[in-house]
Amino acid sequence: MKENNQELMEKIIAVAKSRGFVYPGSLIYGGLAGSFDFGPYGLKLKENITKLWWKMFVDDREDMLGVDCAIIMNPKVWEASGHVSGFADPLENGEKFNVMFKTSVGAGEEAITSYLRPETAQGIFVNFKNIIDSFHPKLPFGMAQIGKAFRNEIAPREWLFRKREFEQMEVEYFTKKEDWEKNFENWREIMQSFAKALGLDKVHELEVKEPAHYSKRTIDFEFDYPFGRRELWGLAYRTDFDLQAHTTSSGIDLSYFDEESGERFIPHVIEPSLGVDRTMFAVLISAYTEDELGGETRNYFKFPKEIAPIRAAVFPLLKNKPELVSKAREVYQMLRKEIPNIIFDDNGNIGKRYRRQDEIGTPACVTIDFDTLGENNDLLDTVTLRDRDTGEQKRVAIKDLRDNI
Ligand code: ATP
Predict the structure, then answer these.
(1) Whole-model pTM?
(2) In the predicted model, is pLDDT for residue 1 greater than 70?
(3) What does DSSP assign to residue 57?
(4) Over 80: is that where the pLDDT of 306 sits?
(5) In CATH, what number does 310-404 get?
(6) Which of 87, 162, 209 to mutate to test the pocket of ligand 1 (most atoms within 8 A of CB)?
(7) Contact, 395 vs 381, CB < 8 A?
(8) Quick check: 320 pLDDT over 80?
(9) Ligand 1, atom 14: closest residue by C-alpha
(10) Choices 3.30.930.10, 2.60.120.580, 3.40.47.10, 3.40.50.300: CATH for 6-285
């Protein structure tokens, strides 16, 4: 763990705000508890994290299908899933408070009460039959979704940790009952690989002693936040609870026919459930670094390059020399065709630009100078490539830049 203190948290919240990662929601009106807005770099970071998740959990496999389901569903879904009767936290007086956000759907007397979904999982379960009918997938297979979820948390707190509106990345993986353990293990490993790819300091697994009513086994993936070790993600064996419950409630048979054995049964489910916001928070904490470089103290985000909001910044050494600017723009245009998230920057002097890029965690800076233009013949068409973490600079041929960024 880094510093277990309030100070680190305050520093990160301040940098995240001043540098355009995370703003308190509705700030000009005094904010709203549990509500935050992402600025341009927060959005990029989120995009890169969710893309990496989709790649590792969906696209790199042959047994996954993606969906994007409605946030407002038929309220019967939430009755069947147990959320209407049981998704409640205790208030101070011990009374139970259901944390689903109620909303009214339709006008006048036609209006019915429904809810903003408190998890993305149910959208997947209610589409199970649609997917079977359209794609005829063989077990085991999974469905994946990234989307917003809403919980009227009694005490939203700790910045991105407990929000009232947050985002989830969820998989429901359908398997034969007898295969649940090996699939559970497989997803556990993928979750650990994802943590590694994000550069998260060790993520601790906690075997949950009393899992939720629908689960036979749950592992919490915990992370050391500045306020203590808390749940980052969950992995649950949900048994056949949800598909059974929806079969009973809807009267629609959600069983699967296994051609090999000639048997019909309700599949069992393994669910890796990952919160985007808690992940972003953990990534920001893990990446935040303070050190000394060239006699000056600095702070920067040591993001792995795959998720850094800006992958590389391209500069002309001087902004008032048209020949430098036009060569720099040429290099910038070339790079951005091949690599996402490249920016051009000619504000202030080079030192300031490095500082600014360090602060937002840009792994590489490319400077076009007079040598690039051939002032020193040996260096024609080479640039300075500066590394964020070491501050080291090396000369690289423009044609080799792509492989070095
Ligand atoms: P907690 O016990 O901390 O309230 P939970 O066990 O209710 O969390 P789950 O229902 O398992 O959470 O939700 C799956 C994931 O969604 C969590 O691991 C977390 O990453 C994320 N998540 C849940 N609630 C919130 C929230 N209020 N704000 C941000 N992320 C959340």
Answers:
(1) 0.96
(2) no
(3) I
(4) yes
(5) 3.40.50.800
(6) 162
(7) no
(8) yes
(9) 273
(10) 3.30.930.10
